[in-house]
């Protein structure tokens, strides 16, 4: 079991509120990713779950047990750090077995569990080596092994892939997802990397300045971002956000801004309202018969399979993403269109999603 309830978690450092009233229910077996920019409080929240930071307010439960004031070693949670925190003078075998020796488990049990974990993580050949004789990826697996050997209620991971090069990071990502599938354990994983979050998580919790912006499956947070912050954080390039006015013309509702005039696909009369209009770069069509957006191409980036065109639309800069070639050239006028289903509307002051 590994069900974690976070209730109104708050942690302050002097004048800084690092974690501000965060509540999340993490189900047994989830791979929950805490995602957000540097300083948003994700590490502090993870450390609070581990018991390495004390909350100023709020409560934590593990499998229905209140662990808010339980010391870290009695929480039945295993933490994997970014730095791996391996003991340099101990072999891989002794590093992995360390938590069991600290708990004075019988020798036979330790040997058996270390051997099992080494098999699972393909470390059997490396058991006699010291950490300095391992690659970054192998060290990362040893750190994971030391967590695994305890058979904890949940695994807490703080940017465990950030010390690996790009290629190894991609393959280790895949290994972690496989491991999660096999163990069926609860993983709580901190990263600022949206690709890691989107590819590994069963759900993503997005934090901004200590507050929870949204929690949902990768598809939910990408397709229906709850705020302009989430919309602007996910996606590469992120969602285009433009201030616009919503109003009725004839029987239909439109969003308009300088050089933008798009139908929202809604019938009826609405009072004129200020909004923030959101459109993902991949949802803008070029060379379509029904233009709704007029701009000038400024720059075209070639990504191999795709291209990204950056266009000036009135005072706004808008990115368009599509299969190569987009057939757009810098300096040329461009007409863009978008399906009404792909339009997002946000409140201009609060940034919260309206539609
Ligand atoms: P990063 O991705 O850069 O690690 P993060 O999202 O994990 O960032 P935290 O490390 O949780 O963010 O920090 C949240 C806020 O709390 C930051 O403003 C940080 O400066 C502050 N903070 C964190 N730890 C301490 C501390 N021990 N003392 C004072 N302030 C701290």
From TrEMBL:
Name of the protein in question: sn-glycerol-3-phosphate ABC transporter ATP-binding protein UgpC
Entry GO terms, CC: ATP-binding cassette (ABC) transporter complex, substrate-binding subunit-containing
Keywords: ATP-binding, Cell membrane, Membrane, Nucleotide-binding, Translocase, Transport
Biological process, per Gene Ontology: carbohydrate transport
An annotated Gene Ontology molecular function: ABC-type transporter activity
Domain ABC transporter, first and last residues per copy: 4-234
Pfam family, one: ABC_tran
Gene3D superfamilies membership: 2.40.50.100, Nucleic acid-binding proteins, P-loop containing nucleotide triphosphate hydrolases
